[in-house]
Backbone:
């Protein structure tokens, strides 16, 4: 497994946001319970800052913060030797946050984001051409969890279907998942095809609050 997985330069801040939006939309449809969802987005988390989260329910997370200046990702693999919990001095790995723009660092002071729980951090400024990381000198043998966690975002419809069938223990329509990945507006029929027992009215309300395009017939 790769120690430090960097996002490809072709994955732009807006592209990442779009992917998180559709993954969050699928989770809204498949899970009436918010706390059971793996993907979440809050478009207006703080002012004009958008917050995204990947949470596998086992203590591993990615928090994503989109600002006017770009996007910051803070990942935490609770089993990683890079974790402060695995170190005697219980401190963030030296250099982890070196170079992070001040406005992004200020946002991490929010208690809900648990700044100290970090095993990798990367960011990309709005006009930047590549993703950046700090100056953490992590031993080659240490896995920071980036490959594992970022792999939960950069997925194909087929990979999502496979994961969702295992996680939700439901048969998942690849056709509907592919439509949502391709930006097709969500319909009541699509919701019912993915989850026949889902309350369609409640799902549509949440999807609209998220900012997902819904086509009501």
Residues:
């Amino acid at each position: 497994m790769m120690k430090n997985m960097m996002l490809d330069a072709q994955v732009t801040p807006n592209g990442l946001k779009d992917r998180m939006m559709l993954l969050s939309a699928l989770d809204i449809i498949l899970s009436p319970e918010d706390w059971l969802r793996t993907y979440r987005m809050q478009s207006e988390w703080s002012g004009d800052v958008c917050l995204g989260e990947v949470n596998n329910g086992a203590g591993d997370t990615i928090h994503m913060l989109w600002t006017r200046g770009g996007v910051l990702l803070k990942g935490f693999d609770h089993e990683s030797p890079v974790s402060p919990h695995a170190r005697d001095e219980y401190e963030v790995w030296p250099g982890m946050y070196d170079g992070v723009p001040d406005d992004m660092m200020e946002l991490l002071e929010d208690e809900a984001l648990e700044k100290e729980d970090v095993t990798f951090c990367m960011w990309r400024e709005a006009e930047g051409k590549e993703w950046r990381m700090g100056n953490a000198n992590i031993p080659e043998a240490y896995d920071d969890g980036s490959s594992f966690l970022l792999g939960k975002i950069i997925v194909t419809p087929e990979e999502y279907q496979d994961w969702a069938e295992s996680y939700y223990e439901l048969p998942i329509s690849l056709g509907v998942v592919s439509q949502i990945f391709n930006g097709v507006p969500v319909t009541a029929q699509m919701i019912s095809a993915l989850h026949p027992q889902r309350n369609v009215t409640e799902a549509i309300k949440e999807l609209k609050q998220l900012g997902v395009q819904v086509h009501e017939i």
Q: What stands out?
A: Residues 13-160 form one domain.
